[in-house]
Design brief:
244 residues, Alpha-Beta Plaits, three-stranded antiparallel beta sheet, 9 strands, globular
């Protein structure tokens, strides 16, 4: 481990970005990579190099940029540039089952077709993460708003829910986990045409929405509490015309 850190430190002192690739190559666990990076950044040699070369650096921003590949970007989803549908839900209570998810996610029941929760059969506990596959990427926006960064309601758990895109998308994820607790939703049809469906957008994303779609007027009749509704076919028509 020390040799790996020394290699990374040498490359960092040369102001090259090889340590990032190197750390990812040998450390699949993201939190472990974070510890390695901070060890390098906080080392005496690195600090001296930063002072000598007058380098302005923010470790949090660097880590955020490096680890942002699977982060949820609301603007990309609204622009329909993001077509991934499978989410990874992290920091879930270990006693949770798929049935607990169905209870908590009841208002999204017609929007997803798959929940997969890797589970330790002997201990009868999950591994602290699960996957959910949505039919329409735009429905991810409200789901993300409802749960990301929040504690699990009606539980004693202090865990904070974290949501990001799964590295493995769609039904491929079923084959990836030999031991799992899985739910296939019989209430949805992935091939069903839902162009006239209403998309729920939280009001906190209204400014982002207006910047992307300045031509759309939000009617007060479509505003309800902390959300507003928009027809999917309106967004489809605008994006189709822009791509022509």
């Amino acid at each position: 481990m020390k040799d790996k850190l020394d290699f990374c430190r040498i490359q960092w002192l040369n102001r090259e970005f090889l340590p990032f690739d190197y750390a990812f190559k040998y450390n699949k666990n993201e939190s472990r990579f974070t510890r390695i990076f901070k060890t390098i950044l906080n080392s005496k040699e690195t600090k001296n190099n930063i002072i000598e070369n007058n380098i302005s650096i923010n470790s949090n921003n660097l880590l955020r940029n490096i680890q942002s590949k699977n982060d949820i970007d609301i603007s990309k989803i609204l622009k329909m540039e993001e077509r991934r549908k499978t989410l990874m839900i992290k920091n879930i209570p270990n006693k949770f089952t798929v049935n607990d998810f169905l209870r908590i996610f009841y208002e999204f029941n017609h929007k997803f077709n798959l929940i997969l929760m890797p589970t330790d059969i002997k201990r009868k506990k999950n591994y602290g993460y699960a996957y959910i596959n949505f039919i329409e990427p735009l429905d991810i926006i409200y789901f993300y708003y409802k749960f990301n960064g929040k504690r699990w309601a009606n539980t004693n758990s202090i865990k904070i829910c974290e949501i990001l895109f799964s590295k493995i998308q769609g039904n491929k994820i079923i084959k990836h986990f030999p031991i799992k607790n899985i739910y296939l939703n019989p209430n949805v049809n992935e091939n069903e045409n839902e162009n006239n469906k209403l998309i729920i957008i939280p009001l906190c994303y209204l400014n982002i929405f207006k910047k992307i779609y300045p031509q759309i007027e939000i009617k007060m009749s479509n505003v309800k509490a902390d959300i507003f509704l928009i027809e999917k076919n309106i967004l489809d028509n605008i994006n189709n015309s822009n791509s022509m």
